[in-house]
């Protein structure tokens, strides 16, 4: 919430603007002027959907800690039952924006996750923090990693084992496919895959509907606590510091409400910074998220992995060098073009796109770095944009992704469904 100093600063700036007709004011005061001057948000209330997952944290904290009010809006978090529900409500306009899977947003843009809809990625909400859980039954059979799973699958008829992810073009599908393929397991012929909403993963594994799943936290930690599964791989072991959820909206909404979009990103970005500022803040965030209104689960399921403290449920414990991150001096939230392009390469690899897309053009129109830059300026405090739009990463199989020559990267994988 604003303190007296900020309120006084706002009054003085507005008085100065009235007297001088000024439109260019001190950078540190920009958010106060934008909230009440010519750049006032077009909407007073912004409805933002979320799925009960740890990585919805920036949206919830922005609303509960008053960061939204600072930028002249009231953020209303709306709990949704599935990613399909998030998609449908975004498209219909029932939601203004949402905590959403990166791949779902790009799938909508391309018309492979529903009817084509021009979309906007306003910022990345987090990196890392997802996992692949295998059943206790597989563990009892000696399956502890992808290589052992490959041998077990080879001894059975194709499709014997069922694996779940959360949405056909979503991040969890891509992490699961990539991990399976790294052991030469074809995710489309060697196993059966199904779509299950995140909060229903543990229950479905408990009753034997699947042998494994890929989902966000806290549901992997919950499976360990319930003694029905163990963590076979974290998503950050597949791609260290990978992009995960984004703050997504329809492009038409952003065009109609540019000041509101900037205010929303400012509020959520400032909340991200608050979460990552200290261990104390992370623990408080876990406590808040555990409440009935948000994740409705035990705090202990969230805290450990939010702090990067991992126990895989199979005898291994470690402090992960790539824990779930929300801020990291703003770098986490920047909508890197190369991040979006990577999902396009995987859509190509797995036959979701029959022809090579214009990778760079799609990323440029979806990933709104302009809004992110305006929001970062509004917040102040030394948040600076990266010098470029591409970043380089080395993935589980040793492949290097840097956003250059994306079609060459997409076609390099020996295990693929191109031409299917």
From TrEMBL:
Location of the protein in the cell: Endomembrane system
Domain of life of the organism encoding this protein: Bacteria
InterPro entries, sorted: NrtA/CpmA_ABC-bd_dom (IPR044527), TAT_signal (IPR006311)
Pfam families reported for this sequence: NMT1_2
Extent of the signal sequence: 1-35
Major place of residence: membrane
Record CDD domains: PBP2_NrtA_CpmA_like
Family: Belongs to the CmpA/NrtA family.
Name the UniProt record assigns to this protein: ABC transporter substrate-binding protein
Source organism per UniProt: Citrobacter sedlakii
């Amino acid at each position: 919430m604003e303190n007296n100093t900020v309120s006084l600063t706002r009054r003085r700036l507005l008085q100065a603007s009235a007297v001088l007709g000024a439109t260019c004011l001190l950078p540190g005061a920009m958010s106060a002027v934008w909230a009440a001057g010519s750049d006032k948000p077009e909407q007073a209330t912004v409805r933002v959907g979320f799925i009960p997952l740890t990585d919805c944290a920036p949206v919830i904290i922005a609303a509960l800690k008053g960061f939204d009010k600072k930028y002249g809006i009231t953020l209303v978090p709306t709990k949704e039952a599935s990613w399909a529900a998030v998609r449908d409500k975004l498209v219909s306009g029932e939601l203004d924006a949402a905590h959403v899977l990166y791949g779902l947003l790009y799938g909508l843009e391309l018309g492979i996750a529903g009817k084509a809809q021009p979309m906007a990625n306003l910022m990345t909400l987090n990196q890392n923090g997802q996992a692949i859980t295998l059943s206790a039954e597989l563990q009892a059979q000696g399956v502890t990693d992808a290589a052992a799973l490959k041998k077990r699958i080879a001894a059975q008829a194709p499709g014997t084992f069922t694996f779940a992810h959360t949405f056909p073009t979503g991040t969890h599908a891509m992490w699961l496919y990539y991990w399976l393929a790294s052991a030469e397991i074809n995710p489309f012929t060697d196993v059966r895959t199904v779509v299950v909403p995140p909060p229903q993963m543990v229950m479905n594994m408990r009753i034997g509907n699947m042998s494994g799943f890929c989902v966000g936290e806290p549901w992997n930690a919950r499976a360990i606590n319930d003694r029905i599964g163990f963590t076979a791989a974290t998503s950050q072991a597949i791609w260290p510091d990978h992009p995960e959820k984004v703050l997504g909206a329809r492009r038409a909404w952003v065009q109609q409400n540019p000041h509101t979009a900037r205010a929303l990103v400012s509020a959520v970005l400032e909340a991200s910074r608050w979460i990552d500022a200290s261990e104390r803040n992370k623990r408080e965030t876990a406590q808040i998220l555990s409440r009935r209104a948000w994740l409705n689960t035990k705090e202990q399921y969230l805290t450990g992995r939010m702090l990067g403290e991992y126990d895989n449920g199979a005898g291994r414990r470690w402090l992960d060098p790539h824990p779930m991150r929300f801020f990291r001096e703003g770098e986490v939230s920047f909508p890197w073009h190369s991040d979006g392009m990577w999902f396009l390469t995987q859509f190509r690899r797995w036959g979701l796109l029959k022809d090579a897309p214009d990778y760079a053009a799609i990323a440029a129109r979806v990933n709104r770095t302009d809004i992110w830059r305006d929001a970062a300026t509004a917040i102040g405090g030394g948040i600076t944009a990266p010098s470029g739009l591409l970043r380089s990463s080395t993935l589980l199989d040793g492949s290097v992704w840097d956003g250059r020559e994306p079609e060459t990267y997409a076609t390099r994988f020996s295990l693929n469904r191109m031409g299917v």
